[in-house]
Amino acid sequence: MARLVLQRLAATVPVLLLVTAGVFALLHLTPGDPIDAMMAESADATAKASLRAELGLDRPLHVQYVAWMGRLLRGDLGHSIRNGEPVLENVSRRIRPSLQLALLAMAISLLVAFPVGIASAVRRNTSVDRVGTTFALFGICMPNFLLALLLIFLFGVTLRWLPISGYVDPAEELVDGLRSLALPAVTLGLALAAVVTRTLRSSMLEALTEDYVRTARAKGLSEWRVVRGHVLRNALIPVVTVLGLQLGTLIGGAVITEYVFALPGIGRLVVDGVFARDYPLVQGVVLLIAVGFIASNLVVDLLYGLIDPRIRHR
Amino acid sequence: MTVSRREFLKASVVVVGVPWLGLAPAAAAAADPPRKGGTLRVGFYIEAQTMDPHLSGSKIDRQVYHNIYEPLVTLDTRLGVKPGLAESWTQPDPKTLVFKLRRGVKFHDGTDFNAEAAKFNIERMKTEPKSVRKGEVANIDTVDVVDSHTIRVNLKKPDAALLATLTDRAGMMVSPKVVQERGAELGRNAKGAGTGPFEFVEWVRDSHLIIKRNDAYWNKQGGPYLDRVRYRPIPDDVVKLQSLQSGEIDVMDYVQPRDVAAVKADKNVVVVDVPSLADFAYQLNLTRPPFNNKALRQAVASALDLEQIVKGVWLNVGVAANGPIPPTSWAYDRSIAPIKRDLAKAKAKLAEGGQPNGFTFTMTTNNIPINVQEAEVMQAQLAEAGIVAKVKLVDSATLIADGNNKNFEMISFQWSGRPDPDGNTYQFLRTTPGTSFNWSGISNPQIDALLDRTREISNQAERRKLYSELTKLLQDELPMLFIIHPIEPKAFSPRVQNYEAIPDGMMRFKDVWMR
User: Fold this and answer.
1) CB distance A164–B396 less than 8 Å?
2) Does ipTM top 0.90?
3) Is B132 on the interface with A (CB under 8 A)?
4) Does A43 contact B436 at a Cβ distance shorter than 8 Å?
5) What is the per-residue burial (b if ≥16 Cβ within 10 Å, else e) of B50-68?
6) Is B75 exposed, middle or buried (0-12, 13-18, 19+ CB in 10 A)?
7) Cα separation of A51 and A33, whole Å?
8) For the whole prediction, is pTM greater than 0.80?
């Protein structure tokens, strides 16, 4: 187990090198310049030139990359050009709402997807199944921004049960915090629930046709025990894979939801950073997101072993 | 909602001409005495960038600054310059400005505002490596302290627009003690730094920024009344508007044209039309075909129907432009009409330019909905004259890069405007080596001479004549196509009273109170 983890960690080094070099090159090849973007209303060439020199942006690209890597090896991700704060500080402030939102959305999706998915598979081709698959289709087709606006209109504007936008940290004020995250978490959670429902249903249907299920039934096990002990457990692998991949997407890719609900998350940080051509910020955040993806995939691989002893690593 | 150009001009006269009415929300409640207290919750489209006015490059920062900091001189509702931290000024010769500073003014940290502090601030703007103000104060050579409350500003060359520049960030005074003790930290924490009617309290990044009433404010007339102002970023326009309608915020900085009619019909919201200083235009690249050909520029101008664009795209939230100077300015000449659509003339000009069957060009514009709509309408109008416009959509950083590198044929340029007409003209039209906003590459001795002259004389009536002459010249020369001077409507909860709209769009809350 420890060896596996070490092996996997060693394999991340080239991946991260590739990611940083790729992001660095892409960002610098994109037309536009951070100083022009920041001082959009100023044509003052001398001020811009001195600011560029101050930030080291006038040096050749490879020199900038090497300097950046050098600082990175010392654990320094640099400072955001736009707000002058350390990149790490920007990220640590923004990662909290993103993580909370992702976990809440995931919890909502599991609460919805498991009953619906199991019922759909077990009662295949009945009206229960049709309601379940229709729900899943709806959840996949519904664009996030539209669902978000509908939820805001219903619960924020019409019923006034929940705040329309903004973020309160649940770690500081539990009730207000959960209220502020409720609508965005439902927005993201429903879409994810749809994906999970479909995955769970199809992998359960496959497992239901296996010989060992027939054997289990022949042994006289109750249907519930067959489903729980034999079908569900074997059907979980694809679901865990999907969840692992989606967790990364939920943390880094919930841009639209964060935007609509004015949540200060990591996704908006990157997108705003790209628009501002805030090189150090974008490079730093993408690097950290890549690390996050690799970590969550590692966790998924370890979970496989827990679920299915056959793939337990030695 | 239909407002003709004439009605709009009349309305802007009312808005800018009757300051004591205290505008919109107040009108109904003129009899009520102002009430102290309350927290005003303001929704902005993005977050502030820095609390240091000398390092700020973001428009949104100024919204906060105008409540905690004060400039040497300020704007009135007609864009005239009135005393601020300087109670008077004289100009003994065109290259010298003498400011008498107000006595008894203290920064929020308790230190005195005086001549030394003013000198410190101007010199900081000129020398601090990260200063974004360098260009604005470039014409200032040196500052002398004459006595404890008098400074003499020596200019490198005459600059009639400098006073108006000092009404904003370039004139804002920060406590020297705070700058020296706090250094870069001032960017996030402006406690004690200003002299204004409100004091900085806290800024939780990505969440909110709070300022509170300065009870020791030097000006005892009127406010400040509000206990606190709480700013929050809400990036989505629809959500921001819903937040106002449901009472989560009391003020929003800008209402999109598409929402104006609906919001005006909502009794729970008061909309104030703030005519702006802006001109939204396109620059034409004069350094290469097709627009190095003047007749082809004129053909495009004659093929466009500005009234239709203002009505159809901007839903009349603005007025067709006759040039760079907006109707809010004293230099605006209402006798000059915007260029009228004339397809016969467009065809004639095409023939004159050697392209009787029309030609094809690319217009570069921002990838935001209203710009795309405008581009599509222009495309359709030009097509009727046989001119084919291809639209290239870019993000704003790319737009600026394309402009600076003259990598365009026609490019959108939406300028927020400056109180002095110089800020809407000189940097776009004067021959300049190197980068500037003169993206079109125009270099016209007659225009250069006019622009230089407007800086040298300080008599407003004479400057106005020069700007009229310039506007007419631009309608013929056409380095830029001026489309619209937009209105920038702001929306308030009906509880908000006594907001005074100044065309620079900044929300100064000194005299605002809540019912």
Assistant:
1) no
2) no
3) yes
4) yes
5) bbbbbbbbbbbbbbbbbbb
6) buried
7) 12
8) yes
